[in-house]
Records
---
Amino acid sequence: MDQIKIGKFIAGCRKKKNLTQMQLAEKLNITDRAVSKWETGKALPDSSIMLALCEILGITVNDLLSGEIVTMDHYNKELENNLLEMIKQKEASDKRLLMLEWVVGGLSLIILMAPIICGALLPIEPEWVRIVIVFSGFIPALIGFHFAIKIEQTAGYYECSHCKHKYVPKIQAMYAAPHMGRTRYMRCPECGKKSWQKKVLSKD
């Protein structure tokens, strides 16, 4: 997906509608800086406002993602290409998120263990100070672990080993599930059976 091409296309469509960046931004309840980022190819419009943007500019979402007006002869092919590109971008984003999960989880473990080790090994007086130090890492570590689990929940899918259904589990199910790495023992919402389910990036 060519962001530079899409940006130039958005700018051209906006000018044809005699709209400034500020006027377009006001219609979408965003900042003109966001519009400027689109038009310079630094970012793509968020999916939540794509339909509204296309309606204002008088184009289709397929036109927007193609960076040009798509003729009916090429409509289905362009649509398929754009969908495949969006899937690839989501998978790449999910990979980055799962790497971030390891970083957050690792830092949370360090935050948890460092005060415990210091409190146990260092000669600290009085005793209540030692206890405070030992327990000082629990709350920030728990917050960190929560974010790591949230990242794992939203990035990619879990695949049922029975029916092969792929889905995003609820956060409550993630907390309650025994796990080994990113493989969790959960109930599939499709077949209702419990199994060890692996994390996968693609839904295909």
Note: The chain has nine helices and five strands.
---
Amino acid sequence: MATKKTTTKKARGAKKSTPKTSSKRPRAKAAGKPAGRDPHLPAVGSVLTREFKGKTIEVKVTEAGFEFDGQTFRSISGVARHITGYGISGPVFFKLHQESKP
């Protein structure tokens, strides 16, 4: 009579218990750059002016963000969304981006 050979199977989804080591090296910090403010944004104290639907819109750039109509917004896109009523890029709305020429 032949005997049945049994094998043990690993449970599905079981993970090996080996310690994980990160293969990524820590990134070096850029020297000379201030960490707080995006260099692409206008300088603090600037006033952005834009015509929209026959109204002149003025937004003041502050340390805390962007001030419009007595409200402070964290981003220029938040101001543009508030003005238009739909999601739009703030730099595009205020024409702050530069078009690339082919």
Note: The first strand starts at residue 47 and ends at 52.
---
Amino acid sequence: MGPPVVELAEVSKAFGAVRALSGVSLRLLPGEAHALLGENGAGKSTLIKTLAGVHRPDAGRVLVAGRERRFSGPGDALAAGIAIIYQEPTLFGDLTVAENVFMGRQPLGFGRRIDVASMEARTAELFSRLGVRLDPARPARGLSIADQQLVEIAKALSFDARVIVMDEPTAALSAHEVRRLFGVVRALREQNAAVLFVSHRLDEVFALCQRATVLRDGAFVWSGELAEETPDSLVRRMVGRELSQLYPKQDTTTGEVLLEVRRLTREGVFTDVSFGVRSGEIVALSGLVGAGRSEVARAIFGVDRSDAGEVLVHGKAVKRGSPTAAMAAGIGFVPEDRRQQGLVVEASIERNTALASLGRLSTFGLLRRRTERALAQDWAVRLRLRFARLSDPAGVLSGGNQQKVVLAKWLSRNPSVLIVDEPTRGIDVGTKAEVHRLLSELAGQGVAVLMISSELPEVLGMADRVLVMHEGRLVEELSRAEATEERVALAAAGQAVTR
């Protein structure tokens, strides 16, 4: 493949007393897709930001085409041919796709006016190189996450980037969009670019990448050919131990119906949804992206107001469109987007843990700080939270640890019904196993768990029953014994008999 396009040599980076990277080395070769693996908190984000010029290493060297480079900012890294495609791209919604690609570098024509035709033609050529079709003249607002990523990749090519870093690019994509992205990555490889692929999904890593590098606790662990590895061997390298069971589902005795949903409807979103969840049961709500799963969960909790139907907990109706009433009834809700909807990222870890319990932690309206800290400390130990100080902002935690804080916020209320929307999205395999263990333990304690998940192995591994949605309707109900990947996928695609 030739000499490395980019190389990190013994790079170290610390933030105060926290050592984020310690002597890490990485070599990216032309024409390869290289996976960067590790648990949340292993140092992947710091490494990416070092490549991007956001962080300057305390020690070690960054070499581009064999020459040492010192980046003073992201502009320097981009000028050196290194582009970062983040999980959630940030485009200017009111500008066209072509204007976003050439922002600040628009081609000029007569009278130094922007040559729109030339700009759109050059953008179309970039998309052609990637093997995708996207209208350069359409506004960026309304583009799917997958299409936004394509715009960012086209922008990177417009800078003649030789290294494309993709940070969790498939986390919010459908199966079709993932296949299209893989085709784009293969096109980039054929053009001799090096792709650094960051993902927790090992099946995607093996399908796409040729080599991998593993980090653990900020240190380099291993780098080598994936053809000589297995998913189990990579997991051992990442977590430093045998992972006994990813889906530790306990056998439980189900009791009375705790959550009952009757003919719930929200016009244009979902229609006539009815089901129940019993004590000690984990029920998975499955379906394709856009089928209405998250919207049903939000309506049950009262974030969105339903137009018809009712929600009952312990046989009593819950006031429609009122999260306060849902909480009082014993419902906890872990939303899909933990950063935007589950946390106040600027607030401390201890404050976030206590947010749903402020009433019982207060005396005459005054919050007892000692009680708040004790609550957070207790749940940090129970959930094996990794942090520096409880007073640190929640935003500094890794994705998996942020998810644990959101879980702690609701578990501290002892809910009888827990709704978890994509509970393991974007978190590493070791933390996934811990979250699964926790959900199984909660069901064993008699909690009714409603789990929304896009990962079929998670659905099949954890659910006692699977409810499948298609275009806003509940179309199939399968017991644990009946549920298979094929049956769930067929129902999600609308090939099951509609109720």
Note: The longest helix spans residues 175-190.
